[in-house]
Design a protein that fits this description.
Bound molecules: flavin-adenine dinucleotide
CATH architecture of the domain at 17-87 and 121-195 and 289-373 and 408-425: 3-Layer(bba) Sandwich
CATH class of the domain at 17-87 and 121-195 and 289-373 and 408-425: Alpha Beta
Number of strands: 20
CATH topology of the domain at 17-87 and 121-195 and 289-373 and 408-425: FAD/NAD(P)-binding domain
Structural class: alpha+beta
CATH superfamily of the domain at 17-87 and 121-195 and 289-373 and 408-425: FAD/NAD(P)-binding domain
Shape: globular
Number of helices: 11
Length: 426
C-alpha cells in the first residue's frame, strides 16, 4: 500500500504525532498492556472513552473477576498485585453440582499442592490499581475520555485522529494499532476483521450477597435447568453471585424486589453456602460468544474481548485476555526491528492460537453440555461429574485450566520480566 501523500492535508495539524503503539480501549486488558509496555522504551498512547473513576466505566464496574494464578503472576510483574491482593479472596476449593441430580465434583487446592486455584476481586479494585499505576508510567501517554476517528492504515503506519470529549482533534500515527475496545470493537470493524457471534440466549445477573456464615474460600458452580449459578467468595465474607438464565426469566428476576430475588436465588442455588441475608445492586449482561475471524491484520492486533468474548461460566475471559496482553508486551519488547511488522504479528497470532482455541472450546463446551435438557446428555453429565470426583487426572486437567495455562506461557505469567532486547532500535 502506498503512503498517503499527506494524511492530514489541509489540517492545521499537518504533521501527525508519532507513537510506536496506540492502544484503543483502556479497560482491564488494554490498561494491562499499556502497563506491561511501560519502561520498555516503546512510546505508547492509550485512548479510553470512559474515565476510570466514572460509574459508567464498562470494564471495571460492579462485577467481580476470578483471577487464575497465571493472572496473579502477571499482576505481580505489572506491580499491581499488592494493591489488588488487599481486596482479593482466595479460592481454596471448587464445588461443582447439578441441581436435582446426584453428581457433583469437589476440588481442593491443597490436593494439587497449591495455596489457591485463584482469587476473586471486584473489577473496580483491579481497574483502580491499573490506572493508579498508569499515572506517571514511563513511556505511556493517556487520552481519556477520548476516541479515534478517520482511521487509515498504510504500509508503514496507522493514521487516525484522537478525539477528546471536549472536541479537540489530534492527528496521530502509530506503527501498531491495538484493539482492546471490547466485544463490539470498532477498531476490529474498521480494520475489516469479521466476527462470528453466537447468541447463547442467556442473560447473566450479577449481585454481591451477604450470608449468615463464613465462606471458607469455597467457590460454587451449580448447574440448573435454566442456566448456571456461580457463587464466589469475597474478601471480608459474602459472595459475588452470577445467575445466568433465559432473557425472559431474567426480565422477571430483575423486576423483583431485593428480598424476593434473594429468595429465588437461594431456592435455585440451595443451602450449601448458608442463608443469603442481604443483597447489593443487581446488574445484567447478555451472553454471547464473539470470535474475531483473525486476531491480526495489517498493522493491527486484537486482544481481550475484541478478539474473543466468552460466556463467564468458567471465569476465563479476562484471564485469557490478560495472557493476550502479557504475550503481546513480550513480543513487542523483544522486537529488534519494526514492531508492527507482519512477521511479528504472525508470531503473536500463532503463539496465542492454542490458548485461545483451547479456552474458547472448553468454555463453549461447558455451556452446551450443561445447558442440554436431553435425558441421555444429562445422565452422561452426572456420571461425568461423579467420575470426575473420583478421577485424579480429570481433576488435574480442570485445575490446570483454572490456573490459566494452555499453549506457550507468557514470561510475565511465569513470574519472569520481559526481555527488552534492543530498545534503542525501536
Ligand atoms: C458477568 C460476567 C462475569 C465475568 N467473570 C469473569 C471472571 O470471573 N474471570 C474472567 O477471567 N473473566 C470474567 N468475565 C469476562 C471479563 O469481564 C472480560 O473478558 C473482560 O472485561 C475483557 O476486558 P477487555 O478490556 O478486553 O474489554 P472490556 O472490559 O469490554 O473493556 C473495553 C474498554 O474499551 C473501551 N472502549 C470501547 N470502545 C472504545 C473506543 N471506540 N474508543 C476508546 N475506548 C473504547 C471501553 O470503555 C472499555 O473500557 C466476566 C464477564 C461477565 C459478563
Amino acid at each position: 500500500m502506498p503512503e498517503p501523500e499527506s494524511p492530514t492535508a489541509g489540517s492545521p495539524l499537518a504533521k501527525p504525532r508519532d507513537v510506536d503503539v496506540a492502544i484503543v480501549g483502556g479497560g482491564l486488558v488494554g490498561a494491562s498492556l499499556a502497563l506491561g509496555l511501560s519502561g520498555t522504551g516503546v512510546r505508547v498512547l492509550l485512548i479510553e472513552s470512559v474515565a476510570p473513576d466514572s460509574a459508567a466505566q464498562p470494564s471495571f464496574d460492579e462485577r467481580t473477576t476470578a483471577l487464575g494464578n497465571a493472572s496473579r503472576r502477571i499482576f505481580q510483574g505489572l506491580g499491581v498485585w499488592d494493591e489488588v491482593a488487599r481486596e482479593a479472596a482466595a479460592i481454596r476449593a471448587i464445588h461443582v453440582s447439578d441441581a436435582g441430580r446426584f453428581g457433583f465434583a469437589r476440588l481442593k487446592a491443597a490436593d494439587h499442592g497449591i495455596d489457591a486455584f485463584g482469587y476473586v476481586v471486584p473489577n473496580r479494585v483491579i481497574g483502580t490499581a491499573l490506572w493508579r499505576r498508569l499515572s506517571g508510567a514511563s513511556g505511556v501517554e493517556v487520552r481519556v475520555p477520548a476516541g479515534i476517528e478517520d482511521l487509515e492504515i498504510t504500509t508503514e503506519r496507522a493514521y487516525f485522529k484522537v478525539v477528546t470529549a471536549a472536541g479537540a482533534r489530534e492527528v496521530t500515527s502509530a506503527r501498531l494499532l491495538v484493539a482492546a475496545d471490547g466485544a463490539h470493537s470498532a477498531v476490529r470493524a474498521a480494520a475489516g476483521i469479521e466476527a462470528a457471534i453466537e447468541d447463547y440466549d442467556q442473560i447473566a445477573i450479577t449481585a454481591a450477597v451477604a450470608g449468615d456464615r463464613a465462606h471458607d474460600g469455597i467457590a460454587y458452580e451449580r448447574f440448573t435447568p435454566t442456566g448456571p449459578v456461580a457463587v464466589l467468595p469475597l474478601r471480608g465474607g459474602g459472595y459475588g453471585t452470577i445467575w445466568s438464565c433465559t432473557p425472559q426469566r431474567a426480565a422477571e428476576l430483575l423486576a423483583l424486589e431485593d428480598d424476593a430475588y434473594l429468595a429465588e436465588l437461594q431456592s435455585r442455588f440451595g443451602w450449601r453456602a448458608g442463608k443469603f441475608r442481604r443483597i447489593g445492586r443487581r446488574a445484567s449482561y447478555p451472553l454471547k460468544l464473539t470470535r474475531a475471524a483473525a486476531t491480526v491484520a495489517h498493522r493491527t492486533v486484537l486482544i481481550g474481548n475484541a478478539a474473543q468474548a466468552l460466556h463467564p461460566i468458567a471465569g476465563q475471559g479476562f484471564n485469557l485476555g490478560l495472557r493476550d496482553a502479557a504475550l503481546l508486551a513480550e513480543v513487542i519488547a523483544g522486537a529488534t526491528g519494526d514492531l508492527g511488522s507482519a512477521d511479528l504479528l504472525r508470531k503473536f497470532s500463532d503463539w496465542r492460537a492454542a490458548d485461545r482455541g483451547g479456552v474458547v472450546r472448553f468454555t463453549d463446551g461447558l455451556v452446551r453440555l450443561f445447558g442440554s435438557r436431553m435425558p441421555g446428555v444429562s445422565l452422561l453429565r452426572n456420571l461425568g461429574l461423579l467420575a470426575f470426583d473420583l478421577s485424579p487426572p480429570a481433576k488435574r486437567a480442570l485445575a490446570r485450566v483454572s490456573l490459566g495455562f494452555g499453549g506457550p506461557t507468557p514470561r510475565l505469567a511465569r513470574g519472569l520480566p520481559l526481555l527488552n532486547v534492543f530498545p534503542s532500535l525501536k
